[in-house]
Structure formats: C-alpha cells, structure tokens
Amino acid sequence: MNFKDKFSKEEKRVNTDDPAMSDTLSTYLQEWLPPSKNIVIACIGTDRSTGDSFGPLVGSMLHDHALETFHIYGTLEEPLHALNLKERLASIRKNHPNPYILAVDACLGKSSSVGSVVLGKGSLNPGSALKKDLPPVGQLHISGMVNVSGFMEHVVLQNTRLHVVMQMAAKVAAAIQLTEAKRKQVHMETKPFHTFTTSSAKFKKSIQ
Fold first, then answer.
1. Which regions form coiled coils (predicted)?
2. At a CB cut-off of 8 Å and minimum separation 6, what does 159 contact?
3. Are 44 and 55 within 8 A, CB to CB?
C-alpha cells in the first residue's frame, strides 16, 4: 500500500468508471514497456485487508492465464507483502537477472482521485501509506487508488469496499492481457524477418 497526493508528468491516469479504461491503460503500457524484454509483474499486497488486496487480486486474475511475455509474482494464494517482500525480490532477481519489473499495488490519496489507476515511470514505495520501511520496487508501476488517506489508514483499508477493489483489479488485469496480445503480435511480426535474414546470411555463406 503506497501513497500518492500529487501527479507528475511521468504518470498517466485512467478511471475505473471509463468504459475504455482497459484499452487506454493497455495503450500506455505498450508505449512504456520495453518491447524486447520479458516483464516481471510484482503484485504487492495482502488478502488479509480488503483495500490492500488490489495487487494480489490482479496477480491471481493474471495467473489463471498463460502469459508468454509477463512473469507474475504475488497472488491471493501466495501474496507478496511486507513480511516477505525483501526475500521474494531477491528470489525474483535470482530467477530473472537484471529484471524489468512492473509493480502493482494499492494506493491511498485524495477523495477526488479514488477510483483512479495511475501508471507511473519509476519505482513505487510499498508500505509508505502505513509508514513501513520497505524497498522501492519497479521500473514502472501501477497504483490503484482504493480509498482516502489522512486518517487511521489501517481502518480505512479494512473498510474499503471489496466491489471497488475487484472492479479495479479486473480492469487492470484485462489491460495487461490486452498488452500481452499486442506484445506477442509485435514478436510475431519481427521474428519471421529475423529468421529470414539469418537464413539468407547462412545461404550466402554456403555458396561462397
């Protein structure tokens, strides 16, 4: 659970109520994610708190699909949270040397921003809304604004509506699935050309 009270030029914001939200977020992801790298998605949060379940819900929704260009960590069954974050990040970096990480986490902010999903460049600071000292995560991040900050954050998280969090998680998961399809299409369009040019080079060498 991180905290946002300002938006920068390095961020894109979409709203859950927008019917085109998943398409719009997918377009931004496609623009900002490196096309030639497999992406680690670190879905941060816990199923023990309604408000903080946004990340694990996204992770579980994506884990049910066979994704080729994304690796998913953090689900409702195996959450990525404050107590295991450092250990799990070390494991991720061991399995994926020099990973490009897209961090997904719930967020608290202004009342006017609740329901927004923010895609931002750079890392996020999980636990910052609850004053926890945890390592920053990600080269890119998605923050789901689930409730209002400023007073008794633990209680606010426990009393966040599950419907709001699930709706937001479903649309973010759909956006990532759309992005997966686009990334696979790019790979299909570039791979045959690479194979053809490689084969041509080998053919030329064989006749010399």
1. none
2. 50, 51
3. yes
- Domain with 20 in it: 11-190
Residue 202 Cα distances to 124, 191, 197, angstroms = 47, 17, 9
pLDDT tens, position by position, 176-199: 999 999 998 887 776 655 444 555
Does a structural domain hold residue 161? yes
Considering the domain boundaries, does residue 5 fall inside one? no
**Is the residue at 16 inside a domain?**
yes
Q: What is the pTM of this model?
A: 0.84
Count up the domains in the chain and report the number. Answer: 1
Confidence at 17, pLDDT banded by 50, 70, 90: very high
Q: What are phi and psi of 185, to 5 degrees?
A: -65, -40
Tokens of 31: 């623009």
- Cβ atoms < 10 Å from Cβ of 164: 19
Length of the chain: 208
Which CATH number fits the domain that encloses residue 80?
Answer: 3.40.50.1450
| Euclidean distance between CA atoms 56 and 45, whole angstroms | 6
Q: What is d(CA 115, CA 199) in angstroms, rounded to the nearest whole number? A: 51
Structure-token pair, residue 137: 């995560």
Helix count (H) and strand count (E) of the chain?
Answer: 5, 7
Asked if residue 145 lies in contact with residue 113, where contact means CB atoms within 8 angstroms, the answer is yes
Residues 26-44 have pLDDT tens digits of 999 999 999 888 899 999 9
